[in-house]
Specification:
The chain has 14 helices and eight strands. By secondary structure, it is α+β, with helices and mostly antiparallel strands. The longest helix is centred in the first third of the chain and has 53 residues, at 2-54. Helix 1 (2-54) packs across helix 11, helix 7 packs across helix 10 (355-368) and helix 12 (419-431) packs across helix 13 (433-450). The protein folds into three domains: 2-55 and 147-228 and 377-459, no CATH class; 72-126, no CATH class; 249-353, no CATH class.
């Protein structure tokens, strides 16, 4: 009888220990989810809000700049060289840097110039040669929104903050899925749809948890397709992609590949996959450069998408660079042309991309809402609005639960009980270095400040 009681006691102790460990692990995941949410919520709201606006850049700019954009077709359009000559008459001291011919018959042409230290875009009616006005590139509203979205208008520091917020959003998603996952539930209430008649507390919880589940896939997609643009992770990923042999195939070069320290992104705005493409040089032949009309003819001959821009060489050895960055990834083109002979030195298109390049290119156009037109914009908008709602409901849930003199964080637990979660965090730290760096900072703050100051320790429930 005694042995049986002892066995029952052992079993009960083991069950209690497992339950305690399980509860500790749950609280730990909740605690990290809580702090990641509180710290990065403002940045994620900014990203979702600015992103939802930028999705509709084509429609917004069409309204804002309709007087610059719209023209009435009147017979044949003037040649590109004639249009540029009209701009030179207006700005005799300016340097012409690029030319965009317009992508349809009712759209003005754009000539970009450098004048008195300012980068300006002059809009030309291609049928009359008259200027419809100019815009300082710094005054383009949607470009400022893009800058705010990508780097909070704070340069490199802002870029790193945005990248850090995006990477920690992945931690939020992983921890959120763990907290959402149903345990011993037979009903879908509170899992796939909110419980309306179970009281305010449960309803508030469900308003955060249930919508979060539904937008998780879309949110993760937007994060992963946005990271290739980031200044640290994105640049390293791009370099790794290029250097690993999945970059540029020999077939894109006409002749041998150039040995150049100048990258295409240094001279032109090109698709992501072509940014690290080495820029060839023109072979000086009689010092008689091609006219811009010849370059436009080559573009038409090579069947480049009508959205292309011609970047004009500024040096004797420079090349014409044609960049088509259209709505669909499959239409992307980056082409370098010898400015004297007109020879196509490099022709890099979507079909030439490696597997990673194609995935990233498609991800970018889907991220921007252009790949599938208006339906793409609407789906992305719903995801952005969903993110804002989930963050807002989470903050409201915290505010209603929070004790008056405490932050309301779940109780910290012993490291011994959360080894698997720590391994996950370390893994994410290696995959996303800024997360790893921030984890080190968090540990130092906890060790040197939180654990030593009882007021702070009690406030943070550490």
């Amino acid at each position: 009888m005694k042995n049986k009681n002892e066995e029952n006691l052992v079993r009960y102790s083991e069950k209690s220990a497992k339950a305690s460990t399980s509860n500790s692990f749950y609280r730990t995941v909740w605690r990290w989810h809580f702090y990641a949410g509180i710290i990065f919520a403002p940045f994620l709201i900014i990203l979702a809000f600015t992103g939802s606006i930028y999705l509709f850049k084509p429609q917004i700019e069409q309204v804002l700049y309709k007087d610059y954009y719209n023209v009435n077709p009147q017979g044949y359009a003037m040649s590109a060289s004639q249009q540029i000559e009209e701009v030179k008459k207006l700005y005799p001291q300016a340097e012409v840097t690029k030319y965009w011919p317009g992508d349809n018959a009712t759209r003005s042409s754009e000539v970009s110039i450098l004048s008195n230290g300012k980068s300006l875009t002059v809009f030309i009616n291609p049928y009359t040669g008259k200027s419809l006005g100019e815009l300082n590139d710094k005054d383009r509203i949607m470009d400022r929104i893009e800058e705010f979205h990508g780097e909070l208008m704070a340069g490199k520091v802002g870029d790193r903050i945005v990248e850090l917020a995006a990477c920690w959003a992945i931690v939020l998603i992983i921890s959120g899925i763990f907290l959402w996952f149903p345990r011993k539930k037979t009903s879908l209430s509170g899992v796939l749809f909110p419980r309306i008649h179970k009281g305010k507390k449960i309803f508030r919880r469900d308003l955060h948890v249930v919508p979060a589940f539904w937008i998780t896939g879309g949110m993760l997609f937007l994060i992963m397709t946005g990271l290739p643009w980031s200044g640290f992770w994105g640049n390293n990923f791009q370099t790794l992609t290029t250097n690993s042999g999945v970059g540029y195939p020999p077939s894109i070069w006409i002749g041998s590949a150039p040995q150049s320290i100048t990258k295409t992104k240094d001279i032109a705005d090109v698709p992501w996959a072509a940014e690290n493409l080495e820029v060839p040089v023109s072979k000086i032949q009689g010092l008689t450069p091609l006219s811009i009309d010849d370059v436009v003819h080559i573009a038409n001959r090579e069947k480049i998408n009508s959205s292309y821009t011609v970047y004009i060489p500024q040096k004797k050895e420079g090349v014409y660079t044609l960049s088509a960055f259209p709505p669909r990834a499959q239409d992307e083109v980056t082409m370098h042309i010898d400015q004297y002979s007109g020879a196509v030195l490099a022709d890099y298109r979507y079909d030439n991309y490696g597997l990673i390049g194609k995935i990233v290119a498609l991800g970018i156009t889907l991220h921007k809402g252009t790949q599938f037109g208006f339906i793409n914009q609407l789906i992305s908008l719903l995801i952005c609005l969903g993110i804002i709602f989930v963050i807002g409901s989470g903050l409201y849930l915290w505010w209603k639960r929070k004790p008056k003199k405490e932050l309301g964080a779940p109780k910290a637990t012993s490291i011994k009980n959360i080894k698997s979660f720590l391994i996950l965090l370390v893994g994410l730290g290696f995959l996303f270095p800024l997360v790893g760096l921030s984890l080190i900072i968090v540990c130092l703050v906890d060790l040197l400040i939180i654990q030593r100051l009882s007021v702070v320790k009690n406030f943070m429930n550490a």
